[in-house]
Amino acid sequence: MKESINSLWTNEDYWAIWFGFIIIAGSLLGWIPKIPKVGTWTSDPLNAFEVIKDGIVTGNTLLPLLGLLIGLAILTAIGVAFMKTTKVSHYLLGFTAVFILATISYWVANQAEIKYWGLSYAMWGLLVGLLISNTIGTPKWLLAGAKTEMFIKTGLVLMGAEILFAKIVSLGIPGLMVAWIVTPIVVIFMFIFAVKYLKMKNKKLAMIIAAATSVCGVSAAIATAAACRAKKEDLTLGVGMTLIFTVLMMFFMPLGIKFIGMNHILGAAWMGGTIDSTGAVVAAGSMLGPEAEQVAAVVKMIQNVLIGLLAFCVAIYWVTTVDRSPEGPRPNAMEIWYRFPKFVLGFVAASLLFSFVIIPAMHGDVAAVESRFINPITHTLRGWFFCLAFVAIGLESNFRELTAQMEGGKPMILYVVGQTFNLILTLFVAWLAFMVLFPNVV
Length: 442
Known about the structure:
The protein is mainly α. It has helices at about 5-10, 10-30, 60-85, 90-110, 110-115, 120-135, 140-145, 150-160, 165-170, 170-195, 205-215, 220-225, 230-260, 265-275, 280-285, 290-305, 305-320, 335-340, 345-360, 365-395, 400-405, 410-435; strands at about 50-55, 55-60. It is built from 22 helices and two strands. Strand 1 and strand 2 (about 55-60) form a beta hairpin. The longest helix is centred in the C-terminal third of the chain and has 30 residues, at about 365-395. The protein starts with 6 loop residues before the first helix and ends in a 5-residue tail after the last helix.
């Protein structure tokens, strides 16, 4: 397997990097305006598309959303044209429909009651796609725009911009202990438990569940699935399980912490290290107070830094061990490079750029960088790409294939055992870090 200079224009991983850095450059140079979002609504569905300033409706987001559709369609169609995997005209038609379905997913997820319960766009995107594929069936013209891996990898490159090293040091050693000691132990424990004790045949699914449980749910599952080249059905099942348990943990953990009278800072660190979604962590932390909310969010952010490293390690392990023939020689360094998922490099590069170039250039003002570049542009577009990806996954999946992945309930056993181990170990390390070794850090 060889790689030529042409791979820079024909390989999907490289195009994810090009897309990501074109967007980042446009953000930094001021060429890209604030990205439109679907708003929160309670009883009137049309409120989701209103622009409200100082309590007054000043416009709507329908035209900006149309502009976003056109912009993303043109940008991604350029890559599709170079990769020559699909006719551009067919892709544009299918992409338009996928974008509309993604908008519907966001719209449902942002209904006030649904949003309160943490039922995110990822879940609704999956359900919308699965509903179509398992009822009327996904037509070929729609599948032409369902470029799952391209959307996922581009979103992950953009996510790198959100991984700011300045935030790692905000909680110092205690935060690092909770996020960085527990996480690799849980990943390794769950994978060994799945392969050695549960005898799971699907090692890729086992790794996806381990990553989602130990790091940050959906994002970690996506990165790991791409790194080990898992099937879409594996990712669908892993993410679906994670989303269900995330909602339960978001609701019951803060209630349990209050009920037993646990120190709120300890409880916040515990939740930050175990609940599998940044948004759910913040929501759960807010139930314990503003200080606890901040601690929980920072612990989760520190943990999120491991996404790139985890994807890197998983990719190396899969190339050198899992995918290698037992009788064959170990692949050399160049073979590892050829097979390594290049989008991981884009993720790391984006993180380094913002952490060590952009933030210092703005005199270390992290808040300014987030408010000017990350939150209104890269973070929002990352969400759109992930939503497009989950709609596409649903469109390409069916329940028969998902049922076949269950292996007699082994994935569920893996998640329950792994999350139980994660909860116990994280609580112990959080207690040791925040209550014993560094009690005055907050």
